[in-house]
Amino acid sequence: MKQNNLIKLIFLIPFILILTGCWDLKGLDRQVFVIGIGLDVSDEKGKIDITYLIANPEVGTSFAGGGTEEDTVMTVTMRSPDFLSLRHSVNAAVAREISYDLLKVIVVSEELAKDEEFIRFLYSAEKDREIKRNTYLIVTKEKAAEFLSKNDPKFLTRPHKFYENMIQRGIEVGFIPNSELHHFFRVTEEDANLFLATYATTNIRQKEDEYRINEMDALAGDVRIEGETNSANFLGAAVFLEGMMIGTLTGVENRIVMLLHDASSITDILAPIPDPFHEDYELTVRIRKQHNTSVEMNVHDMPSKIHVTLPLTVDVLTDPSMENPVDNKKKVEKLRSTMEEFMETKIMALVEKSQKEFKAEPFGWSLYARKEFKTLKDYMEFDWMRTYPEMKIDVDVEIRFGQFGRQPKTPSYKGIRD
Amino acid sequence: MFKVLKKLAGKKRNKRPVGSEDTLASQASTKDQSISYQIEDNIKQVKKIFHYPDNKDIKLRECKIGASEKRVAIFFISTITDVRTIEDSAIGPILKNKHPDATLKEIIATQNITHLSTMRDIVQNMNTGNAVIFIEGETSAYAFECANFQGRSVEKAENEVLIKGPKEAFTEKVVVNLSLIRKRIKNEDLMAESVTISTRSKNEVFILYIRNLANEKLVDNIKNRLKNLDVDAIQNLSLLEQYVEERPFSMFPSVLYSERPDRATSFLEDGHIILLMDNSPDSLIMPATFWSFFHTSDDHYLRFIFGNFARFIRAGAMFITIFISAIYIAVTTYHSEMIPADLLLAIAGSREKVPFPVFFEILLMEIAFELIREAGLRVPNPMGPTIGIVGALILGQAAVEANIISPIVIIVVALSGLTSFTISDVSLNFALRIIRFIFIFSAGLFGIFGMTSFFVMGIFYLTSLKSFGVPFLAPMSPHYVASGDTIFRRVLKNENLRPGYLKPKDMKKKSDEAVK
Amino acid sequence: MKQNEGKIGIRDYMAIILLTLGSKISDDTPTLLYKTAKNSAWISMLGIALLSLIPILFLLKVFSVHRNKNLHEINVHLFGKVMGNLISMGVLLLGFSSFVLDTSVYVDIIGSMYFTRTPTLALYILMLVVCGYGAKRGIESIGSAAWLTLFYLKATLFLALIFAFTKGNLKFIFPLWGPGTLEIAKTTGSKLSIFADFYYLGIIAPLVSSFKEFRKGTLWAFAIVVVEITAALIIFVILFDFTSIEVISYPFHETILYLSIGFLSNVESMFLPFWLVAAFIRFSFYLYLVVTLFGGIFKIKEFEYLVPVFIVIVLFLGIMPKNLTYTLPYLREMILGILSPLFFILPILMWGMAKLRGDFKREAEQSH
Question: Are residues A238 and A89 located together in one domain of the fold?
Fold first, then answer.
């Protein structure tokens, strides 16, 4: 019994090991938060120039101790083989530990995205535990470092809010795709679809003759937007095949992809459509997709056939020709057929572009094809990538009219001008 | 300190016995005499035992029975007897007696009269407030009850406050307490047995139970425990609790302590056993489960939805008070990715100006809060509000403005402190406060992993506790047939079974529609 | 005073099974299935369930005639002292090694996902101390703890799966037969021992309050667990697609890393405590089983005191592998491979022996 107490005391000693611990303790004031990472081509092979966009936590903090006049963000660029070792290298200039907890975007310059080796660098994002799979990927026309430093959002004091809001709103209205890393890895590994990444720039063209008719039928930077607003445009998509960028899609084309693809979260978009009753004017419609696209596939014939039916509900919101199509059944029919034709043409143009130029599709039709096969081996043998450019595809748009605006009728033009 | 180390090393301490005489034994020996024929001897004996006339409140009335010439001596302690009764019902009739052969029994007009044959019985009777009569020529004495101890009157409950329901509380007089309980259970099977537990102060404990409900083994168990106590004095139930409880070193109590008769009665009706004692304005209820500490009578007096709402808030408050400080520490130091981005930047920004790490800040504020709380208990009434204002001002505002503490910490600590007030039971309250500190330490060391480890250890510990054979978390954890009243309660009509873990004889509370 | 001396009721029993087997979806068991069966892992899981039903039913039949004996005692009774002890030793060794591997895997998960800089030794010590404390407290304690926390753990699991389902795409499950029926069948055969836990449940069979409850509890829990694991396997594929699922080591944790609920962008630390509680209960239970079996073989009555010894052994064995990421899955596969045929054959053998010895006839006579 005498020894018993001594032995018990000895048993407690290992617990002191635990008490010396707190190895993972990270004080919040010893970290800085990186909101965006920019990747650029560098002269050396095997290395890239990486830019960190770091948020200043004190700005915007309403604190009894008084506000500060510091900058909202800080950028720092260094050359590094990947963005894991950079976390330590950058401490030569940054005072605190880098934390990726608030990382929202990874910005890649177009130059680097078109490089074959780009995918090697991006895969290190999958290995780092702190980079989440729901980080957005953005491709910029100019260098990423330039984009991050020139981007100066108005009204939003916290930079991460800008990116969050801009991207989310852009996805909602359909002008940019949902380009999370999660989808990138999946699409690249599945090797059957195109991956679309958000396209952005701060290089806005100022020349007059670049103004297009259908404004959104352009890429970021090509649309003339005046006024004292944000310096960056987010519009259109960069097209990736097998991890490399091969082209771009305009805003309208991206919208078409979003409408056709079932997994996109787009629900209603406002778009202008040429008015069938008056050449110079355009109607604004709200397009709502309330049912899934139905895709009928016949993969056993040679060449395979795909028949896509896209059911849409359209609300006609304006009537610049003041023709009042509501009353007249014939006018409504004319409206419907013009719209269907217009949309089908645009869609087929995009499908052809994907077949001829990109040789792959971004619409997610390979998933429908997978249903037709029993095992993975059969599917792999079919090799969607190879057979896609030869396929016969036709798209049918079915429009059903919904509302006609708050006030369906407007007085006729002639009546007013009398 | 050195003693502890020596004990751990196993060295024997040279124990010197503490010198003392066993005065109790010597006191007992003087009482081991019988009553003599001569009344003078008896009177002298009693005077010696009670140190009359040094003890000013021992009174002696000698007289002769009227028409008989027999000498009679009445002894009583005036401060604890109802002197009027003695005068009117005993001394008066003795003096006015007209029949020469009347026995004392026929003369005295008190409620009862008992025969005493040893000096020991006489001393005991006098000590408990009865009056003792010696008659010349008889070897036995007579005693009658006229006890009247002074005490507080029945007042409002102070610690367990209710909105809806009776507001009476127990007082220090056990007869009053008994009457409060009998007022509520008018049943002949309500047993009020008594056991004398201490050897010097002779405190008496009343055991209450309903005979055809409570489990007999449980009752016997408790009675045996009480009889086996060998202590000089146990003044009141708070001390008795510490002698009777099963685990003196554990965080959780094993008996429930309540100052409200209606609560005690509801436990009686379920088959529990209650202890009452003089000098204790409360009752001990045993066996106790965790749910007895958690529930208040309020929950049943309110309607179904309101009662459940109150329970829900109390359960939530319990979790908040234990966990919120610990979660704050764990999240800001180990798991900062959990915080939404805006809040994270705000906290990071405010932390730049503050000198201490989060763990130390929270500890500081929690200790300060506990200090205020203890001080608030003892503050004399006129100064009460001032202390509150001073405390809030100094600790809150000024500390933030001087950049000692960040404002979020104030909110966290205030929340955790306030929510602890929802638990009205004193023992559980203390237990939760101490547990909160342990969680803070474990969170500071290991983040959420540490907290969860300690939580799981706590659950293992709780589920293995037993109070008088009843598992601590019954009827939730080992499942017993009971009325489904654990975290939430049911409509009163559907709560018609007694708790199965008490093994009552009669499980059903209502006869018809009694469904399990 | 005690209603059931050292026994547990059907609720506690089912809760234990649900937690121990249900938490298999959160370690590397899905990865082992996904490696060979790819996106049809759920089909192979259904196959495993069907196949496992046979040994479980045989086992229950054997237990129905020997109601108060635990697994070891039945082994000795049926196979004789020498063979019975040998079989129990083998079972014990296999169980102990899979316990060590499981704890090692969990410590690895915690270390690599949540506490990257803490040395694994400290994490291991803390985890083993908690499990040891639970095992020492006894089966009633473990059972009560399981029943108390069951609802909350399953609710959060359910929540996580629902969110994952909404973020995924149902079409990823096609093509349905994945790598081909042969591969699926191979996976089913080699990974049968995922349900070997049911065999080990025999060790506490006499501790359940009545045999009827034992049987009812086992079968119901089996059904629920099968549904749970299959649903989880499907949902992981829906979220990650067959390409990524092969390379992800811990799909459940990847899922909660990916999820974002409303304004909370990173919720994995919210699911962490619930998962940890399930893990602690699971390992306390395993430790209790191992210690009971050991006590049974070597005839030690007060086997609870063995717990600290076992903890130290597990600790030293667990931190031994030098290269955790490689050796752990390899060893796990090996052990599972050995255990699968054993799990299938042993109960059939036991039933056969029991029939030979006429135990069933004796039971039938007794009931007349």
Answer: yes
For the entire predicted model, the pTM comes to: 0.85
Query: What's residue A64's pLDDT?
Result: 42
Whether B469 sits inside 8 A of C2 (CB atoms) is yes
Q: Which ipTM was obtained for this model?
A: 0.89
Answer yes or no: do A208 and A153 share one domain. Answer: yes
- Token digits for A410? 């407007």
Residue A188 forms part of a structural domain: yes
CA distance A105 to chain B (A): 14
pLDDT in tens, B465-494: 888 888 888 778 777 777 777 788 877 777
With beta carbons under 8 A apart, name residues in chain A contacting C175.
370-371, 373-376, 378-379
Check whether C368 has a pLDDT greater than 60: no
Q: Which residues pair with C8 in a beta bridge?
A: C208
Residue A80 located in a structural domain: yes
pLDDT category of residue C2 using cuts at 50, 70 and 90: very low
Kindly report, residue by residue over B21-80, the tens digit of the pLDDT.
777 777 777 777 777 778 888 888 888 888 888 888 888 888 888 777 788 888 889 888
The answer for residues whose C-beta is within 8 angstroms of residue A195's C-beta and 6 or more apart is A179, A183, A184, A187, A188, A239, A240, A241, A362
The verdict on A92 and A216 lying in the same domain is: yes
Determine what percent of chain C falls in helix, strand and coil, rounding each to the nearest 5.
Answer: 85, 0, 15
Contact assignment for C137 to B217 by CB distance below 8 Å: no
pLDDT tens column, B406-417:
888 888 988 898
Question: Whole-angstrom Cα distance, residue C25 to residue C278?
Answer: 11
C241–A129 CB contact, under 8 Å: no
Hey, what domains does chain C have and what are their CATH numbers? 10-367 (1.20.1740.10)
| B469 closest CB neighbour out of C1, C267, C277 | C1
- Residue A245 and residue A175 share a domain: yes
Percent of chain A exceeding pLDDT 70 equals 83
Average pLDDT over residues C28-48: 86
- On the question of pLDDT at A352 being above 80, the answer is yes
List, for residues A66-81, the tens digit of each pLDDT value: 445 567 788 888 888 8
| A185 and A214 belong to one structural domain | yes
Check residue B516 and give its pLDDT: 37
**Whether residues A229 and A107 fall in one domain:** yes
B453/C141 CB distance under 8 A: no
Strand, helix or coil for residue B513: coil
Cβ of residue B151 closer than 8 Å to a chain C Cβ: no
The verdict on A189 and A305 lying in the same domain is no
Domain regions of chain B by residue span: 23-144, 174-288, 300-467
Residue A7 belongs to some domain of the structure: no
CB nearest A9 (choices: B8, B332, B345): B8
CA distance C94 to chain A (A): 29
Classify residue A152 by its DSSP letter. Answer: -
Supply the CATH number for residue A386's domain.
3.30.300.210
- φ, ψ (nearest 5 deg) of residue A338: -60, -40
Contacts of B307 (CB under 8 A, 6+ apart): B298, B299, B300, B301, B489
CB atoms B480 and C3 under 8 Å: yes
- Shared domain for A183 and A287, answered yes or no, is no
Q: A413 is in which domain, residue-wise?
A: 267-418
pLDDT at C345 exceeding the cut of 70: yes
Q: What is the mean pLDDT of residues A380-398?
A: 82
Q: Give the span between the Cα atoms of B488 and C92, in whole angstroms.
A: 44
B487: closest CA of chain C, how far (Å):
12
- Into how many domains does chain A fold? 2
Residues of chain B that touch chain A, judged by Cβ-Cβ distance less than 8 Å: 7-11, 332-334, 336-337, 341-342, 344-354, 357-358, 400-401, 403, 407, 444-447
Residue A4 within a domain: no
> Which of these, A98, A79, A74, A89, lies nearest to A39 by C-alpha position?
A79
Give the CA diameter of chain B.
103
